[in-house]
Amino acid sequence: MAWFMLSLAIITEVIATTALKYTEGFTKLSPTLITLTGYGISFFALSKVLDQIPTAIAYAIWSGTGISLVGLIGWVWLDQKLDLGALIGIALIISGVVIINVFSKSISH
């Protein structure tokens, strides 16, 4: 159940962060509601994850995966350019998440 909740936390955080771009300083109602609802669900789900996965591990996976997905969405759908430094940084973040999942004994698989 922890992995389902962590996935839910990541997906809703990515949706909320993507919608944040369209809030125009929280002056647009629909994207503002999506952003606030998404972050609310994300933090609720993440709080449930912390009952089973150590905080540092859960947060690293949640934030690293979220950063990578938001970067990909910005590049593919929002036509935002990523330079070599940004791509290398995202690759290192993804590598870190993979290393945690494959080698850490702090989480149960």
UniProtKB/TrEMBL annotation:
GO MF term list: amino-acid betaine transmembrane transporter activity; antiporter activity; choline transmembrane transporter activity
GO biological process, alphabetically ordered: glycine betaine transport; xenobiotic detoxification by transmembrane export across the plasma membrane
Keyword Transmembrane helix applies: yes
Recorded topology in the membrane: Multi-pass membrane protein
Key words, A-Z: Cell membrane, Membrane, Transmembrane, Transmembrane helix, Transport
N-terminal signal peptide: none
Subcellular localization: Cell membrane
Keyword Transmembrane: yes
Major subcellular location class: membrane
Pfam families from the UniProt entry: Multi_Drug_Res (PF00893)
Gene Ontology CC: plasma membrane
Transmembrane segments: 32-50, 57-78, 84-103
Family: Belongs to the drug/metabolite transporter (DMT) superfamily. Small multidrug resistance (SMR) (TC 2.A.7.1) family.
Record's protein name: QacE family quaternary ammonium compound efflux SMR transporter
